[in-house]
Amino acid sequence: MTQPSSRRQVPRRIELIGLRTLPEVRPGEDIARLVWNAAQREGAGIETGDVVVLAQKIFSKAEGRIVRLQDVAPSALARTWARTLSADPRFVEVVLRESRRIIRMSERVLIVETRHGFVCANAGVDRSNVRTRGSVTCLPLDPDASAQKFVKRLKALSGVRVAAIISDTFGRPWRLGLANVAIGAAGFSVLEDLRGEKDASGHMLNATIVAVADELAAAAGLVMKKAAQVPVVIIRGVTLPAGRGRAQELIRPPSEDMFR
Amino acid sequence: MTQPSSRRQVPRRIELIGLRTLPEVRPGEDIARLVWNAAQREGAGIETGDVVVLAQKIFSKAEGRIVRLQDVAPSALARTWARTLSADPRFVEVVLRESRRIIRMSERVLIVETRHGFVCANAGVDRSNVRTRGSVTCLPLDPDASAQKFVKRLKALSGVRVAAIISDTFGRPWRLGLANVAIGAAGFSVLEDLRGEKDASGHMLNATIVAVADELAAAAGLVMKKAAQVPVVIIRGVTLPAGRGRAQELIRPPSEDMFR
After folding, report:
1. What is the reported pTM?
2. 3-class DSSP string for A179-226
3. B155 and B49 both lie in a single domain
């Protein structure tokens, strides 16, 4: 069981364990079974209370979210922007189809709001780690549902109750470099509200809501390097805020967002 | 020694160990000695190759970056914005003094560029975890120098060579909740460039520069909760990109930043 947060339950040690032997994922694959088997095979195991962080790419593949570029007819807008970006117009077309709003169009990058509401470059459409040349992957249609399904399936298979995060690497304004973030979550509250708690000096904390799901995803990113075939990381020993969270709750409402 | 990154050296397990027994830090304190002693006392130890993540607050205190609000005379601008924000005008005055540019002023928050170039709310000025009532802490003047000094002092004390990060919790556009990020760093490259490496499918990766320092800080944030008196986290088992990095290198040049 994931434990409710409390100042008295701060973990002393957290362990991050990367799984290296997940086989190539094909459409329709039972990811929970693949992950469970890999964890057993590698001697890590999966225990109740663990957080399992999974790279979005394996869900994109399992859910058939792969687009063959030869099947894509680019629109005039896609062709125009492809010239500006020096990109394949069919790739730009897929990005536009995955978007519900364009946030910034520059000569270097398209920053969009995905259909889920996440703001990122290229709507998460990606060429890397696709075995089929000339194909791209798109983000899962409903990553929260995918995470929830993973948790339920793993419970059914093994009796073990975990929390799950589906992650992708996103860029950020103001700071260089990508960081791994949560785009899907199940089994815990993605935000931890420390307001109303007193800090060590007895002052009330205010405006202290921590994006626990993103900190977990970033931690997993240390092990889950893109090139490294470590698509799954088990985080053991973390005290999670209780709740039935969804990564959707991490999206800042556009009306409160000063940077769109 | 921190090891250069390589696909063959992906760590299987990373451990995060929080230190709980650091004493209250006073101005002029030798933080390296306090941390070394706490790590010994708690049985964690510190080993060559570890990353030590330290909450900025302990450096702010050690470096005397504490301002008594009774000593602050607010400007007209500070008084005006304090009314809008329902804040103490002396607090707003300290924020303005710590800023070199205002990014957004709304009724809810001041987003500024600090003198170091970091973009965050309230310039990192903070009321929490200050024992002296009516005082606030400011970020260290040069967090990279503070991190470098920590690394050198720990080496001199103990012979152990670590990497260090000084961290603070910042909000982000588009996503709710705070995440711990690096504001100072020493002993490794803060950005890991995976461009030019091939991914598992043999494709070249492009635009894949990972903000390792921020992922390390976020991971530490899981243990280092504000209210919890865990101001130091040791990260053991991580393969760091070699280099003499500074957190300053994480700042996206304003000319390339579409969100200012």
Report:
1. 0.93
2. EEEEEEEECCCCCEECCCCECCCCCECCCCEECHHHHHHHHHHCCCCH
3. yes
> Which residue ranges in chain B fall short of pLDDT 50?
1-10
Task: Looking at the structure, tell me whether residues A15 and A92 fall in a common domain.
Answer: no
**For residue B49, which residues of chain A lie inside 8 Å, CB to CB?**
none
Residues in A closer than 8 angstroms to B43, CB to CB, are none
Best of A222, A224, A258 to substitute, by most chain B Cβ atoms within 10 angstroms, is A222
Nearest CA in chain B to A12: B18
| ipTM of this predicted structure | 0.92
Whether the Cβ atoms of residue B235 and residue B15 lie closer than 8 Å to each other: yes
3-state helix, strand, coil in chain A (%, to 5): 30, 25, 45
A16, A182, B158, B179, B230 from A190: Cα distances, Å: 19, 9, 40, 12, 21
Domain match, B94 and B181 both: no
On whether both A163 and A233 belong to a single domain, the answer is: yes
* Smallest Cα distance from A258 to chain B, Å: 7
Residue of chain B minimizing CA distance to A107: B256
Residue A9 contacts B, CB cutoff 8 Å: no
A137-168 confidence digits (pLDDT tens): 999 999 999 999 999 999 999 999 999 999 99
For the segment A202-254, what is each residue's pLDDT rounded down to a tens digit?
Answer: 655 556 899 999 999 999 999 997 656 899 999 999 989 999 999 999 999 98
CATH number, domain with residue B24 = 3.30.1330.100
Quick check: A196 and A207 in contact, CB under 8 A? no
**Domain count within chain A:** 2
Taking a contact as any Cβ pair under 8 Å apart, which residues of chain A between 60 and 99 contact chain B? none
Domain boundary among B137, B167, B188: B137
Nearest Cα residue in chain B from A225: B10
Provide the pLDDT confidence category of residue A128 given band limits of 50, 70 and 90.
confident
Taking CA B124 as the corner, what is the angle to CA B153 and CA B179, rounded to the nearest 5 degrees? 85
End of a domain among A109, A137, A165?
A: A137
Looking up residue B96, the CATH number of its domain turns out to be 3.90.1660.10
Chain B closest-CA separation from residue A153 CA (Å): 25
8 Å CB contact between B135 and B125: no
Chain B hits for A226, Cβ within 8 Å:
194, 199, 205, 208, 210
**What does the pLDDT look like over B209-241, one tens digit per residue?**
999 999 999 999 999 876 568 999 999 999 899
